[in-house]
Design a protein that fits this description.
By secondary structure, this protein is α+β, with helices and mostly antiparallel strands. It contains six helices and six strands. The chain has one domain: Pnp Oxidase, Chain A. It has a six-stranded antiparallel beta barrel. The protein is globular, with a radius of gyration of 16 Å.
Length: about 170
């Protein structure tokens, strides 16, 4: 929305975003993994994955369901908190401990997280609109945040693939 006098689009309030996340995780659990995760489709929608991190303060397992798209073998997501000003807890957890596991519609995967920088960040940021659902005007939404929105790259991590006992809890149960 760049027109003068046009009403700025509102982002959902924090409690509304939180309720949506709780309902999404509940749907996933209630359906035993049959609903809630999806693959991205360029031009149609971003995918949904289940991200398992370790709490930076508690050391306890933490789960979040986040949107993503694929960039070769990597999974890419945005560290936004409903476009609110604060960083999402899952991103703070990954900054403290970058090794994580993701549950995808086609099974679990071990990953290592990092923030994209420089040219890679610009290239990935430019791909985000190819996967609708993040928001109509990403740049305008991003300016609402006091810091740059991190573009998070989840790279496959082969040495973690051996830890099957950690991954078995992420596989959808049917």
């Amino acid at each position: 929305m760049t027109a003068v006098g046009a009403r700025a689009r509102r982002t959902p309030r924090g409690f509304a975003v939180r309720i949506a996340w709780v309902l999404h995780r509940g749907l996933y659990r209630f359906s035993r993994g049959r609903f809630g995760l999806s693959r991205p489709k360029a031009g149609s929608k971003f995918g949904m994955l289940r991200l398992a991190t370790v709490g930076r303060r508690t050391g306890q397992p933490r789960i979040a369901i986040v949107g993503y798209f694929e960039d070769g073998p990597n999974l890419v997501t945005l560290a936004m908190n409903g476009w609110g000003p604060l960083e999402p807890a899952w991103w703070l957890n990954l900054q403290a401990q970058p090794d994580a596991t993701v549950g995808l519609a086609d099974g679990p995967r071990a990953v290592r997280a990092r923030a994209a920088t420089g040219e890679e960040r610009e290239r990935l940021w430019a791909k985000v609109p190819d996967f609708p659902g993040w928001g109509d005007d990403l740049d305008a939404l991003a300016t609402r945040r006091s810091t740059d929105t991190a573009v998070v790259v989840l790279e496959p991590h082969a040495s973690l693939q051996a830890r099957r006992q950690d991954l078995s809890g992420l596989a959808p149960k049917v």
